[in-house]
Write a structure and sequence with these properties.
By secondary structure, the protein is an alpha/beta fold. The protein contains seven helices and ten strands.
Length: about 240
């Protein structure tokens, strides 16, 4: 791991180690936040036109850090690739990058023991679902925020990781796409609709509702693996 600027910060009285990293093979820029006694990892996939600096994803990541969950936010494309608008909607490419980041995290000393989950927003949700289908048991949970799961195509039928779809109540059209996708998912699944929210959840309290739903889903499914690992260690 190539670390640029290791720092530390406090999130809700929890000490969090922050590192800027480069993810091979193309050197994608990323930020990992690892709380003290972290017990899980969530890798983020941002939506079209966004980056690892997405204010909404950072807010979600900070909330997860406060609950003891490490996070990795990274750019799915290089600066040169972003110049081609088609790459922003290239779900196979984006899912490949996301899957590569999960495999990279498995080898990093700070992250290797942490059960991984994926958090995807908008088109990033499609990339997360395709990556989950490809990685199988390597991904333990998926959360989609305002996602376009329909863009995952046939991969939806192969997703067995516990998946939560979160949609705004006023995100017309996208609600229906998520309802259709929910029927195709094979593992544990749920759809949460945030009343009065639109696609980007800018309404007062809307993003906080997303945080609450996502945190509970990860605690339920990633936390279950932590309990199982602890039980096996005591045998």
């Amino acid at each position: 791991m190539r670390v640029i600027t290791p720092t530390s910060q406090r999130t809700s009285k929890i000490l969090v180690e922050k590192r800027e990293v480069r993810i091979p093979p193309v050197g994608l820029a990323g930020t990992i936040n690892v709380p003290q006694k972290a017990w899980a990892l969530v890798v983020f996939a941002h939506g079209s036109g966004s980056s690892r600096l997405s204010a909404r994803n950072i807010l979600v990541a900070d909330a997860l850090n406060a609950r003891g969950i490490a996070t990795l936010l990274f750019d799915l494309l290089t600066a040169e690739e972003e110049g081609d608008h088609n790459n922003v909607f290239d779900i196979p490419l984006l899912s490949q990058r996301l899957g590569g980041a999960v495999l990279w995290a498995e080898r990093e000393p700070l992250l290797t023991a942490l059960p991984p989950g994926l958090f995807g927003a908008s088109t990033g949700a499609a990339a997360a679902l395709v990556a989950a289908a490809r990685l199988g048991s390597r991904v333990d949970a998926v959360v989609s925020r305002g996602g376009r799961p329909d863009l995952a195509g046939p991969a939806l039928d192969n997703v067995r990781a516990p998946t939560l779809l979160i949609v705004g109540g006023n995100d017309y059209g996208v609600i229906e796409l998520n309802e259709q996708a929910l029927k195709r998912l094979k593992g544990p699944k749920a759809l949460e609709i945030v009343p009065g929210a639109t696609h980007l959840f800018p309404e007062p309290g809307a993003l906080e509702a997303v945080v609450d739903h996502a945190a509970r889903w990860f605690e339920r499914h990633l936390g279950a693996k932590r309990i199982n690992q602890g039980s096996e260690a005591q045998r």
